[in-house]
Design brief:
Layout lengths: L3 H19 L4 E5 L2 H9 L2 H6 L5 H18 L3 H7 L1 E12 L2 E9 L4 H9 L15 E5 L2 E6 L2 E6 L16 E6 H9 L7 H10 L6 E9 L2 E8 L11 H5 L5 E9 L1 H20 L7 H14 L6 H6 L3 E8 L6 E7 L2 H13 L10 E4 L8 E5 L3 E5 L2 H6 L12 H9 L6 E5 L1 H17 L6 H17 L3 E7 L4 E7 L5 H14 L1 H5 L14 H22 L16 H4 L23 E2 L2 E8 L5 E2 L9 H9 L2 E6 L7 E6 L4 E5 L23 E2 L3
Helix pairs in contact: 1-2, 1-5, 2-5, 4-17, 10-11, 16-17, 16-20
Length: 688
């Protein structure tokens, strides 16, 4: 059974419906035939990971759910997806204000009649309707759902017809949009009291009213999206790739944008001032000129000797945002072009938090209230740089390449992006997945609906996904008449904001998750020794393991996938195999591995199916590397036993377990009832 045949149907149905309802434009949306979608999915990384033995528990759970779904529907949804043909959504204009004319058509094959039979058993049975040529139909004032043989049509504010689509979809999802036609189709329905605002909007967006084409495809690497338009993107310039080159080889993700402030102001400055005017004086027509004078007064009060126009025009150049590997959480770096107004604006902001700007070529710390990470502000000849990466802050000012340009993600990006691209972005997706694995584990640990086997399966699937993933990229380029954007990644254009959000969340939660002492978070702090042991396992050592692996601190077989760590390595007391010095990722432990009245020990698989704790140091072992990429187990037992004492454990699933303390340290496989690394946990989930 293929995952594609299960997930594509609801996904594409949602895409089609949402696109039809939400897109206020004359648009044609087409979806490729089900057989083509299944074929593309089956050759993708998604099918590869879903079919991996590590996902067996998830497949079993889904098969059970699918059986129930099939019983409720009365037909086989797997066959239904493969049989979909001619799926198309058309926006036909406006029947009246707030009444879009929408026509959705899809050939469901043999599933069409059972679908209507199922609907007829529900409240829709009371909404039967006569439609010319239709076998059956339901409808009300909101719309009509009709079946013409195997063709199902939904029509809103128009009549349903079984007409065939304009042609085979050129992509898995294809959208063709005529923005000028949009304006013409809805202008007549705009009420008189809203006509002035509508005309103003059209005028401001006039240079965007062209033909837009979106093409989204399932490719072996994941999703590839392309957007082409016969309109330019004003206010851009080619990215300065030498700025990207200064990033380190350990970069996880990076995006850079070339902005031409003067060109932007010339095209959109008036529109910007109108929007600011409306925001500052809602309902009061002060006028853009008066607002500009008001803004000038505010700027002068801050000591900024420039107008808003001069500030915008001074932003010309390449800006950069990057995430880099760092302990215990990924570091963020932001670079923006320098100008006199920008220097003054930044100086005012820094002064508000009691800081001062560094001199050119120098750096200064920035302390933000409530942010428990070290932030550095650097000033070079052309840029201001704000970073939490301690290594990058020491190398940036030299201007020398940091290794980014030689990475696989950069080479993949530069091989497809034009030389004059105004947007360049790349993602080391395998490293990103390994980095976020710890966060996922903590989410899974708190999910009571999944069994330990299913959590293990999800974790294993993510490991396989990281091993099989390719690098991702995004670029955008335009000339005087056209613009072109392309994105490729595991989930297309949605990946970057999700991961940036995860990394940001990780930074602000540094103390709770990493055991640091920058901020004391008393709320919910465990007060009993057992509670503190559970917290140390789940909120200190567990995430530290995934930071260690995600940072590839140990890669004994050189496959680019990191292995987990011993306790001595997490404490920074011993270097990982192949490294000259250790990295402290878990703080608060005594030299003997005790903390808050508990002993701690970490076991990793060896090459013989048993375990090692690395107390005397871990030697490089290529034969054990694959196993150490997938599993670990951490134990905690009391320093001084008392009545009712408990031992605790956590492995790569993130679930913390407990068992009665036996008076001695647990064996490496005690959690698994004496079985091997594939054994099922025999201990019970821990109770605080």
């Amino acid at each position: 059974m293929h995952l594609s045949r299960i997930l594509i149907a609801p996904t594409l149905a949602a895409v089609a419906i949402c696109a039809g309802e939400a897109a206020p434009v004359p648009v044609t949306l087409r979806v490729a035939d089900g057989a083509e979608l299944v074929k593309a999915w089956d050759s993708s990384i998604y099918a590869k990971v879903w079919g991996d033995p590590a996902a067996a528990a998830l497949r079993a759970k889904w098969a059970e759910s699918l059986k129930e779904i099939q019983g409720e529907l009365g037909f086989d949804p797997v066959a239904a997806v493969a049989g979909i043909k001619g799926c198309e959504v058309r926006f036909l204009g406006m029947a009246a204000e707030d009444k879009p004319r929408l026509h959705v058509r899809v050939d469901l094959g043999a599933a069409a009649a059972p679908l209507f039979a199922m609907l007829g058993k529900d409240e829709m049975a009371n909404k039967k309707k006569q439609v010319a040529g239709a076998d059956e139909a339901f409808g009300d004032e909101k719309g009509t759902l009709a079946r013409f043989g195997t063709v199902v049509v939904f029509a809103a504010n128009t009549e349903p017809v079984p007409a065939a689509p304009a042609g085979v979809s050129p992509a898995a999802v294809a959208v063709d949009l005529d923005a000028k036609l949009l304006v013409d189709s809805i202008a007549g329905g705009i009420p008189a009291d809203k006509k002035a605002d509508f005309d103003k909007m059209v005028k401001n967006l006039g240079h965007y009213l062209g033909l837009w084409k979106y093409r989204g495809d399932i490719v072996p690497e994941g999703v590839r999206e392309r957007l082409d338009a016969n309109v330019p993107t004003p206010g851009t310039m080619p990215v300065d790739r030498s700025l990207l080159a200064r990033l380190p080889a350990t970069t996880l993700m990076a995006a850079s944008y070339g902005f031409d402030g003067k060109a932007y102001w010339k095209t959109d400055g008036q529109s910007m001032m109108q929007q600011i005017d409306e925001a500052m004086h809602p309902g009061a027509p002060a006028g853009a000129a008066a607002t500009a004078q008001e803004l000038q007064g505010y700027l002068q009060a801050m000591g900024i000797e420039a107008s808003l126009q001069q500030i915008v025009e001074g932003l010309s150049g390449t800006s950069l945002l990057a995430l880099t590997q760092s302990a215990p959480f990924p570091a963020v770096t932001i670079a923006v072009p320098r100008s006199k107004p920008m220097d003054q604006l930044l100086g005012f902001g820094i002064a508000q938090i009691g800081g001062a700007l560094p001199e050119e070529g120098q750096a200064a710390p920035v302390v933000l209230p409530g942010v428990p990470v070290a932030i550095t502000l650097l000033r070079d000849k052309t840029h201001w740089v704000l970073t939490t990466d301690a290594v990058l802050s020491s190398t940036w000012s030299s201007g020398a390449p940091g290794g980014f340009a030689d990475t696989p993600m950069a080479k993949t990006l530069y091989a497809v992006a034009p030389k004059d691209a105004a947007l360049l972005g790349a993602s080391d997706t395998p490293a990103v997945l390994r980095t976020i694995q710890g966060y996922l584990g903590m989410v899974l640990a708190g999910n009571d609906d999944l069994t330990p086997e299913q959590k293990q399966s999800i974790n294993g699937a993510l490991i396989r996904l990281a091993a099989a993933a390719s690098t991702g990229y995004v670029f955008a380029a335009n000339d005087a008449k056209n613009s072109r954007t392309e994105v490729r990644g595991l989930v297309g254009s949605g990946l970057v904001p999700v991961l940036i959000g995860a990394a940001t969340f990780g930074m602000v939660m540094k103390d709770r998750m990493g055991g640091g002492d920058a901020i004391e978070m008393d709320e919910g702090r465990a007060e009993t020794p057992d509670g503190r042991a559970i917290e140390t396992l789940g909120s200190v050592l567990f995430p530290a393991q995934f930071q260690f692996q995600g940072g590839t601190y140990a890669d004994q077989d050189g496959d680019g996938v990191g292995e987990y760590a011993t306790l001595a390595e997490l404490m920074g007391k011993r270097p990982a195999p192949g490294r000259a010095q250790g990295e402290m990722l878990a703080e608060g432990f005594a030299d003997d591995g005790t903390r808050d009245g508990f002993h701690y020990s970490i076991y990793l698989p060896d090459a013989k199916g048993a375990a090692l704790d690395g107390a005397g140091g871990r030697k490089a072992d290529k034969a054990a590397a694959d196993a150490q990429e997938r599993a670990f187990v951490v134990y905690a037992w009391p320093v001084e036993a008392a009545g009712g004492s408990r031992s605790f454990a956590v492995d790569q699933t993130g679930v913390v377990y407990e068992a009665p303390y036996t008076g001695k340290a647990p064996a490496w496989n005690a959690l698994y009832g004496g079985q091997g690394w594939d054994g099922v946990p025999a201990w019970q989930p821990a109770q605080r």
